[in-house]
Amino acid sequence: MGVYVTTGQIADSDRSIILQFQNRLPIDVHGLAAALGIQVWESSSLEPNIAGILRKDHVHGGSSGYSIVVRAQDALVRKRFTVAHELGHFLLHRKEIGDQISDDEFYRGGLSSAKETEANRVAADILMPHHLIRAMIAAGTKDVSALANAFGVSQMAMMIRLGIPIP
């Protein structure tokens, strides 16, 4: 769990759904999205600078009326983080997103950088819950690469989560 998942910023019903998925590794982020009523799609037609899109989608979206589209060409760890990041926006900012927001390196559909940071923190809380990291470290897994592999995230994401300075 993490700060955003354990505080009142996320609805209790959504929080309980998240916690149901945080009992084994790697976290099933696609299953979590489905449980939250969001359909996840891959597209090879997204621009190279667009990692993902969260959009209202009453035709192809899940029961929530939203879908997430990620770049098919991205590495699996990138796609997983993008899905979790977009889930962060859904959980925290869905009333502010309008019809769609697109994730890219330089532009973010009008949302502030503070909201981007929040979505990244929720993504980290979802994919790398502190209790599971502590359990793995206590069991003897201390190598960043091994931890990243177990959690299905990049080494950089794990380093950030562990508070290790990025060179």
- Give the count of helical stretches: 8
One letter per element, helices H and strands E, the order comes to HHHEEEHEHHHH
Low-confidence stretches: 104-110
Strand content bin: 5-15%
End-to-end Cα distance, whole Å, is 27 Å
Strand order within the widest sheet?
1-3-2-4
CATH class: Mainly Alpha
Give the secondary structure arrangement, pairings included.
Blueprint: H1 3-6, H2 12-20, H3 29-35, E1 38-43, E2 50-56, E3 66-71, H4 76-93, E4 100-104, H5 113-127, H6 130-138, H7 144-151, H8 155-162
Parallel strand pairs: 1-3
Antiparallel strand pairs: 2-3, 2-4
Helix pairs in contact: 4-5, 7-8
Characterization of this structure:
The chain is an alpha+beta fold and 167 residues long. The protein has one domain: Arc Repressor Mutant, subunit A, CATH 1.10.10. The chain has 8 helices and 4 strands. Strands 1-3-2-4 form a 4-stranded mixed beta sheet. The two termini are 27 Å apart. The model is unreliable at 104-110 (pLDDT under 50).
What is shown here, in short?
This protein is α+β, with helices and mostly antiparallel strands and 167 residues long. Helix content is 47%, strand content 14%. It has a single domain (3-126), classed as Arc Repressor Mutant, subunit A (Orthogonal Bundle).
Which keywords apply here?
47% helix; 14% strand; 4 strands; 167 residues; 8 helices; four-stranded mixed beta sheet; alpha+beta
